[in-house]
Write a structure and sequence with these properties.
The chain is built from three helices and seven strands; from the N terminus they run ααβββββββα. With about 240 residues, it is α+β, with helices and mostly antiparallel strands. Strands 1, 2, 3, 4, 5, 6 and 7 form a seven-stranded antiparallel sheet that branches. β6 and β7 form a beta hairpin. The longest helix is centred in the C-terminal third of the chain and has 45 residues. The N and C termini lie far apart (about 110 Å).
Length: about 240
């Protein structure tokens, strides 16, 4: 009887861990309180499934970097690159969640480019891309607080160069914390951060595609209207 109970408990516990992993929930893989000899927090390694995911995301990130880099030629041709940078911003939006104070959010992305001075496309290529946000409380009864967040990465290889910076500014303090991707303890949070970066890259690629598409539509509209005007006329005669 006791042996059966142990087997049943072991089976349920194993299934619970498996289910948690399937739902992308954090699974304890090592001692969360482990420290390195220098006193820094010890990293929890990926399990096999997480390792496959991070490798896939890294490849997708490289693909998006290459895709965006190809579109830099269009931006250079349109003379949209200023001081080796190109970026876009979002309109400020006020957000009010239940049981949370009101705040205003601003966002932008900036592409840092290298090269330039070449013939075709200006010779620019993508060097670094960052996503930036500013969150400011608007509740009058609350102490003013503004939080700046920046997620940036170079294009040298997947997600290894990811860095998250969080700056908090109040009347009494101005504090910045930096989190390097490969030094974040939780494998689940590393995966989430890499996934968020990949998704934002996809948005950037689509944003530039919409710009290209709009440019093509405007050109088609102008040509169509011009064809109509030059095609419709009265009888010609000497002036």
């Amino acid at each position: 009887m006791r042996t059966s109970f142990v087997l049943i408990f072991t089976f349920l516990f194993t299934m619970g861990l498996f289910a948690a992993d399937e739902k992308n929930e954090p699974v304890s893989q090592a001692n969360a309180h482990k420290l390195n000899p220098d006193g820094s927090i010890g990293l929890i390694p990926y399990n096999a499934k997480q390792q496959q995911k991070i490798e896939r995301i890294g490849k997708e990130v490289d693909d998006y970097h290459a895709m965006i880099n190809e579109k830099v030629k269009f931006l250079s041709f349109e003379k949209k690159i200023k001081d080796s940078r190109y970026g876009q911003v979002t309109s400020a939006r006020e957000i009010h969640l239940p049981y949370e104070p009101r705040y205003v959010m601003h966002s932008r992305f900036v592409m840092k480019l290298k090269g330039g001075g070449g013939a075709e496309g200006g010779g620019f290529s993508l060097d670094e891309i960052s996503f930036w946000s500013r969150k400011s409380l608007t509740e009058k009864a609350k102490d003013p607080i503004t939080t700046y967040r920046e997620l940036k990465n170079n294009t040298s290889g997947g997600v290894k160069g990811l860095v998250l910076s969080v700056r908090t500014v109040t009347n009494a303090d101005d504090n910045t914390l930096n989190y390097e991707f490969e030094k974040i303890q939780s494998p689940w949070e590393r995966l989430r951060l890499a996934t968020a970066y990949r998704d934002r890259l996809r948005e950037v690629a689509r944003t530039i595609d919409r710009y290209i598409q709009a440019k093509g539509k405007l050109e088609a509209k102008m040509v169509s209207e011009s064809i109509l005007e030059v095609s419709v006329s009265g009888d010609f005669e000497e002036p």
